[in-house]
Amino acid sequence: MYDVVTLGETLIRLTPPNFRLLEQTDLLTMYVAGSESNVAVGLARLGLSVCWLSRLTDNAIGHYTTSRIGGHGVDVSRVIWTTEDRVGLYFVEEGRLPRSSSVLYDRRHSAMSQMQPDDLPADLFVPGASRLLHLSGITPALGSRAAATFRHAFELAKAAGWQVSFDLNFRGKLWTEAEARACYEQYLPQSDIIITPMGDARRIFGWDGDAAAVLNKLHQRCPQAVAVLTLGADGAAACDPSGEHYHQPVFPAEQIDRIGGGDAFDAGFLYSVLRGDNTPTALRWGAAVAALKYTIPGDMPVVNHADVLRLVESGSSSATIVR
Questions:
Q1: DSSP string spanning 225-251?
Q2: Contact at 8 Å (CB) between 237 and 248?
Q3: CA dihedral 21, 230, 265, 234 (to 10 degrees)
């Protein structure tokens, strides 16, 4: 039925225009923003069949959310609707050096944080219904109910014979490093694909050394998985179950909006894996989708397959107008 199923919270992002501070602005631009739904959109736009699972409040904001995600080809028909709770918000002040960008969350008691294991569609988690479940570490950070739902989805997917990809996606404003580490250690040994920023791996596990050293430590702990480190301006690196290491530089990109770049990388990487490519090729697809996302406002990787393929094959892109 699907190539990929994702589960997670999607928020409404509100951003002042023209790099203004919140205290300066009278206007806010609204985007739909969620790590797992961003990945779902990227995968769908690359041509895969994707289902996004979540829980939303049955009001205009909730339906705006599903219409935007579903408009890119993602199946949103299994979203759980509630008349209670609320859709979470987050505010972004976009900065330029020397001022950093900043994020302010307003997501406590969101609808997704109250999703329970019984809300998951049992008829979906069966052999052959999907090839892969994609999860991120944001979901268990939302609270005990969301954490239990995350666990149940993980267990159901493994029992059904699906692969599971796990992006650690540490959010220091949601939980502590110790809480995150205790959670990650439960799921990493069972994950088929593990993705994490280099900085998060060092911060959570206390690992020193360069990318190769961190990958070796991750491989020693999780030898069954393809382990991927995103390295910011240095690109990405991976180690497959054989222990072989690979590195992919970034593609040059003029940065318009970097939020969602990691999710875009995930989408490109998973797309390539699911079509049967090797690990270095999958890294290249991940880097290409991330580079294109940096040029697009908002969190979603609104890319098309032809542009990504052109970048993967050529290694560069042109700023000319395509007529």
A1: SEEEEE-GGG-EEEE-TT--EEEEPPP
A2: yes
A3: 80
Q: Which of 274, 250, 268 is nearest to 307 (CA)?
A: 268
Residue 170's contacts (CB-CB under 8 Å, 6 or more residues apart) are 137, 177, 180, 196, 197, 200, 203, 204
Contacting residues for 147 by C-beta, under 8 A, at least 6 apart = 139, 140, 141, 183
Q: What is the pLDDT along the chain (323 residues), one digit of tens a residue?
A: 999 999 999 999 999 999 999 999 999 999 999 999 999 999 999 999 999 999 999 999 999 999 999 999 999 999 999 999 999 999 999 998 899 999 999 999 999 999 999 999 999 999 999 999 999 999 999 999 999 999 999 999 999 999 999 999 999 999 999 999 999 999 999 999 999 999 999 999 999 999 999 999 999 999 999 999 999 999 999 999 999 999 999 999 998 998 999 999 999 999 999 999 999 999 999 999 999 999 999 999 999 999 999 999 997 655 444 44
Let me know: does 265 contact 286? Beta carbons within 8 Å.
yes
Q: What are phi and psi of 7, to 5 degrees?
A: -140, 130
Report all structural domains of the chain as residue ranges with CATH numbers, in order of start: 4-314 (3.40.1190.20)
- Tell me the HSE value of 83 on the side-chain side, using a 13 A CA sphere: 0
Contact (CB, 8 A) for 191 and 158: no
Q: Are 90 and 13 in contact (CB under 8 A)?
A: yes
**Is 277 a catalytic site residue?**
no
Query: In sequence order, what are the residues at sequence separation of 6 or more whose Cβ sits closer than 8 angstroms to the Cβ of residue 308?
Result: 46, 268, 285, 288, 289, 292
Q: Which of 3, 75, 192, 263 is catalytic?
A: 263
Nearby residues of 267 by Cβ (< 8 Å), 6 or more positions away:
38, 39, 41, 42, 43, 46, 286, 289, 301
In the block, tokens 């999703």 appear at 115
